[in-house]
Fold this protein.
Amino acid sequence: MERTAIRRRLTWQLARVVEGVTETARTTSIVLAAADWQGHLAGQHVDVRLTAEDGYQAQRSYSIASAPEDEHLAITVQRLDDGEVSPYLTALRPGDELELRGPIGGYFVWEERLGGPLLLVAGGAGVVPLRAMLRHHRAIASDVPVRLLYSARTRSDLIYRAELSEYETTITLTDEEPEEWNGRTGRIDSDFLAETAWAPAERPLVYVCGPTGFVEAVADALVALGHGADRVRTERFGPT
Amino acid sequence: MMAGVSPGFRGRRSGAADAARVPPGQYVTPDFPVLSAGPTPHQPTETWSFEIRGAVGKPMSWTWEQFMALPSERVTADIHCVSKWSKLDTSWTGVSLDTLLDGVDTSAGNVLAFCDGGYTTNLPLDDVRNGKAWVAYEYGDEPLAPEHGGPARLLVPHLYFWKSAKWVRGIELRQDDEPGFWENYGYHNYGDPWKEQRYAGD
Amino acid sequence: MIALDGNAIAGDLLEVFGVDLTAATCECAVCGASGFLAEAVVYTRGPGHVARCRACGEPLMVLVTVRGITCVDLRGIAALAAGPARSAL
């Protein structure tokens, strides 16, 4: 049967929680079934809206954690104790519904036609859209060389750790130096990038995602090392 | 389109508050949210000044030292943000606009407050006189933090809080009424929270 | 107040314009700098959202939602073009 591509306006739709997956002590992936979902590109996000009985609304953006090829749409939410929305979302149960709109974004997306080598640099929760890119890369069996640099505060903050170990991933911890830790510590700075990123001459395509301070420090360092600003894409996160 | 309700979602709002003190459509918060249209200016008091200019007989200006030498007042006020949060019993220290306007010769009816960073907001001159407005430099006994408008901000609690311009550097008295930053983009020209005057046309 | 970037207003812009604008190139009306709208400095916590030029800080675009309708003021943008100005991608 022929499928017609219908151009739809972006509207809010209800999605049902299929399951919640505990990623870390304060991070949960919420797997969703959205009846009207049109598919997405790796790196895009959704906006989620909560409405109280008296009509009060709160809205937040969450990167899509799933690949376009995955069966269900998923987002990964980090619970901030004093957050307005994240404590509610991370407590949702299968069958609960929430409103979302998406997919959103055309700049911070990776598709194979964009090529590489592909360098993904994540600060904290910034790893979420980059994980979607990695899953997509694997699902299409892409030949594009890809590497992930992932900075987290402590070992217990690392999300998707087992899955990420299947890729060329370098993890660094900034707030702790655990005894049995063979990995790196310290921030992702110029020296770190000079060692772990491709040389500017190879013109890697770089995606940097995380808190604003992290993104700006990494983007500035990449440009200072000689990477073209036009080869660096950025997405800044705020608290939820 | 009717929004689906999220069962159990309350947001950060407090429980019951004294309804007589909370304007329609507002929610009381214990927090002090930081809302901004741009980067936080960091103006050292050494180079700070406050001016009264425009349709006045003689423009006035004070350095920080001169400003600190003026009589100041402690003010306790409820504040109401157009984004629907209200905060009760906030406490400030500042110089009353009555003190600053004392002796200023003008027939102008309008004020445009101007600020570091380029923000502006407009008010009727009558709404910053007679004990209704201050230039506040302390919040809760501490110097006003930059993110909340320090070194000094306008404080006009009887109107929505976007009129209490942060990083204020002076007021311009005008015959005509020039809309300020948010007023230009569709917010109400006057902004009385008790009449819920959030947007132009309300 | 730490700023975000144009990605933070992508949903509102998609709803208003019907197309993604994050990958659009905009030219600042004040200083002439060109860049992706995604790379603008964006302040979302306020009576409206303000996207500022990363080079000079002047407002490129202001979004205000009034009675459920989002109004976009583009007076800070001299030119807006779909797709990247820079080659590479």
Notes: Residues 10-17 of chain C form the longest helix (8 residues).
